[in-house]
Design goal:
The structure is a single chain. This protein is an alpha+beta fold. β1 and β2 form a beta hairpin. The relative contact order is 0.10. The mean pLDDT is about 85. The chain contains four helices and three strands. The radius of gyration is 16 Å and the shape is flat. It has two domains: about 35 residues; about 35 residues, no CATH class.
């Protein structure tokens, strides 16, 4: 399990890429900050599809997750 951080420059903005177990993960936060700062993140987090995705992810990886309460 090796972690490796590196940065790339896209349109003059620095974006972090983290490699974990031979998989690359791009920082969505860095990408959003390069545009409209926190507005992009807030809007993304409020989308129905994002909320459903987060609920499904928690259901898969969090054994203590209360799916019923999440739905409320």
């Amino acid at each position: 399990m090796s972690k490796k951080l590196r940065k790339i420059i896209v349109d003059g903005k620095e974006i972090t890429i983290q490699t974990y177990d031979k998989e690359d993960y791009i920082s969505l936060t860095d990408m959003a900050k390069s545009q409209l700062q926190d507005v992009v993140i807030i809007k993304w987090l409020s989308l129905k599809n994002t909320i459903e995705y987060l609920g499904e992810w928690e259901l898969l990886y969090n054994p203590d997750f209360n799916y019923t309460e999440f739905g409320i």
